[in-house]
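Ticket closed. Logging final result for BTB/POZ and MATH domain-containing protein 1.
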Amino acid sequence: MATRCQSAGFIEFKLDFAASNHLAVGDIVRSDDFSAGGHLWRVICYPKGDEVGNGNYLSLYLRLVSDSKSEKIKAIIDAFLLGRNGAPSSSSHGKRWVHVYSSPDGSRSRGFPEFVKRSVLDQSDCVTDGFVTFMVVVIVLRDSPMAIPVPSSDIADHLGRLLDHANDGSTDVTFTVGTETFHAHRAVLAARSPVFKAQLFGSMADAKITLQGIRPEVFRILLRFMYTDAFPGDDSDNDNDDAEDSLPRDDDDEDEQEGYSDIDLFQDLLAAADMYHLDRLKLMCARKLWDRVSGETVAKLLVCAELRDCSELKSACLDFFLVEKNFKVAVLTDGYLQLMQSFPSVIAEIKARVRQI
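Final structure:
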């Protein structure tokens, strides 16, 4: 982000160096407040160091005095000693630092606990009539007023509305899934899925397609994802625990819905994502399934992971088996029996891992 110099300010801070010999470690000498960049600042000096380990040094800090509220203030600070002639000391006792000063409970002071050694200062040309003078310059940086804000992308919203109005005659392909009909746009589907691209623009392309082996509610979520890159009901890439409450379901046939759980839905959706090479959706489904893992479901999920080549879900399920209480429950489920019948190599892998514990 472009920045510019908003304002600068400085102070000549005089310290009675001779009198400071009578101070203790941790004693403070403060400057008057001064203004820079629309904020008040103060120099904090510890003539004998700010803690025991720094007793041979003079410590110097700059503190933001005014309330910055939620604003973060980026500043460049130069601090150096002035010689007897008022010019910067030839001994080059100076420091520069850049710091972001924040809210009252954040970082409001910054400097150097070992700014200069007292013995070096005592022998330098900086002590005049027992006093030393520090020049502290503060340059406050602000975001450039010429910066042009750019809103976040809303293409998903636009494409989502395009799908919402798919019955307005703008679509060019129709899918029949069970007893339901879905209208869509070839270009969108082809851009999202290489399988749809081959199906919709190949030599056998058709404007009306009947899909077998997929439930209407699963295809509805799949279609919505291809337009918006999100689960229905999810506010962001981070899946919400209650997102499934907003997933579209078919209520026409209650008998058909009975016994069809969220796990069944996400397993079918993962299978569809795998079929159409939608890798992001596949992993989102895997995470939804993992959120529902238990001793009763882990074997069933492992079957799904192995069948659909989802290595991430498989690895997580295998680790879940290593917990003894989970293993004792899982081996009594129908899913484990299915694993034994269909994927004996996975059973062997589970047993090998258990023996290593």
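The longest helix spans residues 262-275. No further action required.
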